[in-house]
Design goal:
The protein is an alpha+beta fold. It contains 2 helices and 2 strands. The chain has a domain of 45 residues.
């Protein structure tokens, strides 16, 4: 088992960084914080077999009924 790190160089590099991480064919993609939520939401429907873990993100409030 090994750990590989992909770092985004700024806001414009967030989605490309997620794609670079996926190109490594990982067992699990781990992201930290809120900045990667939108890029992960963009790519995850195309990678249904890929596991993602977001650390340090507060879940959204449930809808009020």
């Amino acid at each position: 088992m090994d750990l590989r790190t992909v770092t985004a160089s700024g806001a414009a590099d967030l989605l490309p960084a997620v794609n670079r991480a996926l190109d490594l064919y990982p067992d699990l993609v781990v992201s930290a914080g809120n900045d990667l939520i939108d890029p992960l939401t963009t790519v995850s429907p195309s990678h249904l077999a890929q596991e993602f873990l977001v650390v340090g993100r507060n879940p959204p409030n449930p809808p009020r009924t």
